[in-house]
Design goal:
Number of helices: 12
Order of helices and strands: HHHHEEHHHHHEEHHH
Radius of gyration: 39 Å
Distance between the termini: 101 Å
Number of strands: 4
Shape: elongated
Largest sheet: 4 strands, antiparallel
Length: 501
């Protein structure tokens, strides 16, 4: 029979344990199954629209659309959660400045007594082995310690966390300004689409009937064929222009629904207000004055300033790390060893340590921090130039569209008067049916162009405010208020700025 000694058994056990450890650490990638992906997709789809979201019970006005976007837009909620995370990180970083209070316990045992022998100065061994420790020992302590250097570094890190939180707030401001701009653009395009839907159908019907009549005339050879074909071309041109306008406006309600976080298949109406003159104190400013306001208010420029401040704190931290670390401690201790005369005691002391390698790293770290500052400054200058360009372009576009809107309104009014006059002459027998149909279609097309141009003007108006970076809603509101309350606050804010929309 084979006999195993203790050493052999120990080696076999160690080998088996090593094999099990290697097997346990072997990990194979697991691709998500189709069923798992379907469950994930279904869960996300179900949570897009919250059960707490206020249902649509009436036609949606401009400020209600803005309020719903601020309250329910998912991009905005991402920014809110990001800001909340940065705030929690700031709160957590303040604990790093507190002393460490560590409780520890250690139990140890052995299979035999820890006997020891000793040798005297003359080289003689002790007569009999002795021990001063029990086989099983429990040690415990509670130690309060505080590192002065760590306190200073933690203080600087907390300042950086505070600036990171402010950066998140500026990013949220930027997101809200963009959302409000997009809402105003989509809303007025949706208004134009809703106002013109019936007119487009009427134009399509009249144009098709007139085209059929003209085609029949060309096919039969009756009358002036060239005149009939020119008439067809004119009708097709009107029809094509109307279809292009309708195509551009067709998706406006889908875009607005997405901004308000409504289901894409939900049917809703928007309030169709009258066209208002967009003449506010901001739009009456010159581009230079608007640019100065933008330099103070644009979230992107404020964010760069906070990042520069974080970089400055990095420089202070690097200098502080050159100092030695001084850690003081005070603790309560317990040991279950009965051979000890005192099983519990209080201990205190201090430790001085100095990482000399920090001296060697400092020049390179200082150059790295300086390079980061240079990069941030270059980005700030590039962004400042971009902001200036955006302000000037948005101002020019707004005033150009104001002129286009006036022209489109005059064309629309004139087309209506021509149609009315043609109708009178047709009733009197002085105008043909072709003339009447042509002017009717031109009047409808003029109305389509006017509404579409006014929608672009509203988009340009929103872009002016986004370019100068003014807050799109009252900062006293959290965004969690009821939709009606948020809408009233938004309307009051924009009315104070001279907006009659």
């Amino acid at each position: 029979m084979t006999r195993f000694n203790t050493q052999t058994i120990g080696r076999l056990s160690a080998t088996a344990l090593l094999g099990l450890s290697v097997a346990a650490c072997s990990v194979e990638p697991e691709v998500l199954t189709t069923q798992e992906l379907a469950q994930i997709a279904a869960d996300r789809e179900a949570r897009i629209i919250s059960d707490e979201q206020e249902p649509v019970s009436r036609s949606i006005g401009l400020y209600e659309a803005m309020a719903r976007a601020i309250k329910y837009n998912l991009d905005n909620r991402v920014e809110i959660m990001d800001a909340a995370l940065r705030f929690e990180e700031l709160e957590l970083s303040e604990f790093d400045m507190l002393p460490d209070l560590v409780a520890s316990a250690n139990w140890s045992g052995r299979s035999n007594d820890p006997f020891t022998t000793s040798i005297t100065t003359s080289g003689l061994a002790s007569v009999e082995p002795s021990r001063s420790t029990e086989r099983n020992v429990l040690e415990a302590d509670l130690t309060l310690s505080w590192d002065i250097l760590d306190f200073g570094l933690s203080y600087y890190r907390s300042q950086q966390k505070a600036d990171t939180y402010l950066i998140a707030q500026e990013q949220r401001r930027s997101t809200i300004n963009r959302i409000i701009e997009d809402v105003r653009t989509a809303y007025w395009r949706a208004v134009a689409a809703e106002r013109l839907s019936g007119r487009v159908k009427r134009l399509e019907g009249r144009a098709e009937r007139a085209l059929s009549s003209a085609r029949a005339q060309v096919s039969s050879g009756e009358g002036d064929r060239l005149e009939a074909m020119n008439y067809q071309r004119e009708l097709l041109g009107i029809q094509r222009s109307a279809q292009e306008i309708a195509r551009d406006l067709a998706v406006a309600k889908n875009q607005l629904a997405a901004l308000m976080n409504l289901p894409q298949n939900q049917h809703y109406h928007v309030v169709v207000p009258r066209h208002a003159a967009l003449d506010t104190p901001i739009t009456r400013m010159g581009p230079e004055q608007m640019t100065k306001i933008a330099y103070l208010n644009r979230p992107e420029l404020r964010e760069i300033s906070y990042r520069l401040r974080i970089n400055e704190i990095d420089e202070k931290s690097a200098a502080l790390e050159l100092l030695p670390s001084i850690r003081g401690f005070l603790g309560l201790n317990y040991n279950s060893n009965d051979f000890l005369v005192n099983n519990d005691w209080a201990g205190w002391g201090a430790r001085l340590s100095w990482d000399i390698m920090n001296l060697a790293r400092y020049p390179q770290r200082k150059r790295t921090i300086a390079a980061g500052e240079t990069l941030l400054d270059a980005r700030a200058l590039a962004l400042t130039q971009a902001v200036s360009t955006q302000v000037h372009v948005s101002d020019q576009r707004f005033h150009a569209l104001k002129k286009e809107t006036r022209t489109a309104r005059e064309y629309h009014n004139l087309s209506d008067r021509i149609y009315s006059q043609t109708r009178t002459e047709y009733d009197a027998g002085a105008a043909t049916e072709r003339d009447l149909i042509r002017e009717d279609l031109n009047a409808i097309l003029g109305s389509l162009r006017y509404d579409a141009t006014y929608a672009r003007l509203q988009s340009a108006f929103a872009n002016v405010y986004a370019a100068i970076g003014l807050d799109a809603f009252d900062g006293k509101m959290t965004g969690n208020e009821p939709v009606d309350e948020l809408a009233a606050s938004l309307q009051a804010l924009w009315a104070s700025r001279g907006d009659k929309g």
